[in-house]
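[[Per-residue structure]]
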Amino acid sequence: MLSKSGENKNGQNKIAKTALFSYAGNSEYFAHICYANFIPGSGDYEDEDKIASDKECDCFEIRFSSISTEEPGQASAGFAESLDQAILKVESLDGFVKWL
């Protein structure tokens, strides 16, 4: 079971898919699609509850990490409700090179 931070009991993110990215053609990094169990809401009390509250569901978070580690980093690029949506989102980001 994953926690709200998208980590499993060992504190590691469970990775569904990994992509290689390039920045300015000379620096590489990873994007990991990780399993998650919620999509965060805005937290703004002025928003409708549907927008303000976290949505508990089986979903995916996109996280970036340094090329020096295969562990997902803390930089999040957002959430998707399905793996297919997450894949399309990753492929649309600047710097996408290939899936590993």
